User: Fold this.
Amino acid sequence: GYPGPDEGEGNGLFEALWLAGFSVSRPMQTIADDIWARATVIEQGETRIGVVSLDLIGFFYDEVLIAREAAARESGLDHVIITSTHVHEAPDTMGIWGPNLARSGINPDFMSHVHLAIQDALAQASQDQVEAQAHRGSFHIGDEQWDGTGINNINMDSRAPYITDPTLWTLRFSALGSGETIATWINFANHPEAAASRNLAMTS
Assistant:
């Protein structure tokens, strides 16, 4: 049902952003909500590191190296760690989920946008630095919860060897003195398929 070249392109090609996860040929139809690059910068002594979380399915090591070089140059960071939420409703950044098995789903313009977003997030976190304390927390989802099903009620592993992590970990950074929350990290090991393959709207 492709009617012709999109406005501003004029090249006769169907240039979709292909959603990553599930299967190939899932062109993004609309935006349900924004996806994010969120960053925290931590400084102790003379060492400054940045931690970035991306609402993407994944981010390859060669892309991480490019981001690290830019962060050292632009924000003076000694090291940068980049994680992905592994969302299945964001554009393909790994080249596996294009229009078909033979064609990559990576859009170079989108990848450039991701790199700019990483540096913007790191720059903002650097600019907003204050003295802080870190508070670690955890919540164990035991079998006594949800009628004896525990973690398998909300996060079931469907593939052998059937491993799940029943603990949700948090790290909260609070401003020294006021106690105001600056940033919160949450680590919950799960496979985010809540919206399933029928969803074609980008969402975090």
Remarks:
- The beta strands are 30-31, 37-44, 47-54, 79-84, 132-140, 167-175, 181-187, 201-202.
- Helices lie at 61-75, 108-127.
